[in-house]
Amino acid sequence: MDVIEKLAVLGDAARFDVACTSSGSERSASSGAGVGSTVAGGICHTWTDDGRCISLLKVLLTNHCDYDCAYCRNRSSNDVPRAAFRPEELAMLTIEFYRRNYIEGLFLSSGVVRDADHTMGLMIETLRLLREVHLFRGYVHVKVIPGASPEAVERIGRLADRVSVNVELPSTRSLLSLAPQKKPADIEAPMAYIADRRSANREELVRYRGAPTFAPAGQSTQLIVGATPDRDVQILRLSKNLYSRFDMKRVFFSAYIPTNAHPLLPALTSAPPLLREHRLYQADWLMRFYRFDVEEIVDSGSPDLDLDLDPKSAWAMRHLDRFPVDVNRADYETLLRVPGIGVLSAQRVVAARRLGRLRTEDLRPLGIVMKRARFFLTAAGRYAAERIPQAAELRVLLADKCGQKGYAPFQLRIEDLPVVAEGA
Ligand code: SF4
């Protein structure tokens, strides 16, 4: 099998991995030898004239895997075409693609061959060749194999911009049922190491600007949504926990795409829960940038997100007694909770009203989405909509188009999963 044939197999095998953003890392080739650069706060993507996005080469080092995770197309028991790059092949392919302007970086994951550290050794060698032989200074995101030793994580963190260890499934019970070779401790230990090293590295860089960096674009993780009966409240609590314990840059949600027949998984004909994934991202955004707590968005009594409404509108519908608010008097936190007002538009409101009293016609130019916000605001003594709608009517008016795509939730209950002892 030649390198391009391997690429066809291993590029296709990698398409279920998410987490391609490349923000947060800064390095320039202009300061020395080497090719490629990354830009802090940006995304290493370019768009061609015909609108195609050229971004990272997203590929597995190998899709051979000794593990048999039920949800994975590359599991050992599946009869699928297999391939493996040698480190020098993948390093050369990446640099050639970079030089031809096909890509600006590499997103590298792998099946588990022999054990975590053996696989990590092959990934480390690929990156070493890229960085030290080909002097590639572009963005690299690497998936750390659960169970990798601190030494392996240290080496990969020195070479990559971003590292991530996939949580995979939202609960220990789901993980042990569907991916019994992956232990929660094997996932958490490298995450904790990365968080500690990044913290130490920040201090090193303050003391000595030339200190080697460790995963300067931080760590992220990925959760599969809809493969198991875990509820949104569990997913969002876990997400919050991951952000606070491991200093995550991003928790990515990935709608489960059925690829294998299994009694504990949705039927092969099930549609991926893309709308649910979208709502989880919206909820995650509310927690990270709008000062919402998980329990304000979902709780044990209402454990799943409303698929018809974005989570902020759903929250506002449950708290209609707090609205409308006066856009000239409401504090910043209150403005952030108004559907249709984002972080930037809330800041603009606060700045603009210092100059004079805002009227309803002043709001749209500040970036406020009046289609939603008008039902929740007054300005200069006037309600911003034509009339106050009834709650049922308001719900219809706030429903976004995403909700019309439909989504059939997976019906298996958490109690249906077999209990497997941790560490088995
Ligand atoms: S470890 Fe599991 S999820 Fe990863 S490639 Fe192997 S079977 Fe798939």
Question: What does this entry look like structurally?
Answer:
- With 424 residues, this protein is α/β, with parallel strands linked by helices.
- It folds into two domains: 265 residues, Alpha-Beta Barrel (TIM Barrel), CATH 3.20.20; 94 residues, no CATH class.
- It is 37% helix and 10% strand.
- It has 15 helices and eleven strands.
- The chain has a six-stranded parallel sheet. It has a three-stranded mixed sheet with strand order 9-10-11, with no helix packed on it. It has a two-stranded antiparallel sheet with strand order 1-2.
- Helix 4 packs across helix 6 and helix 7 packs across helix 8.
- The protein is globular and about 70 Å long.
- The relative contact order is 0.10.
- Iron/sulfur cluster (SF4) binds next to loops.
- The site of iron/sulfur cluster (SF4) has 9 residues, from loops.
Can you give keywords for this protein?
binds iron/sulfur cluster, disordered C terminus, TIM Barrel, 2 domains, 11 strands, 424 residues, alpha/beta, six-stranded parallel beta sheet, 15 helices
Quick overview of this protein structure:
This protein has 424 residues and is α/β, with parallel strands linked by helices. It has 15 helices and eleven strands. β5, α4 and β6 form a beta-alpha-beta unit.
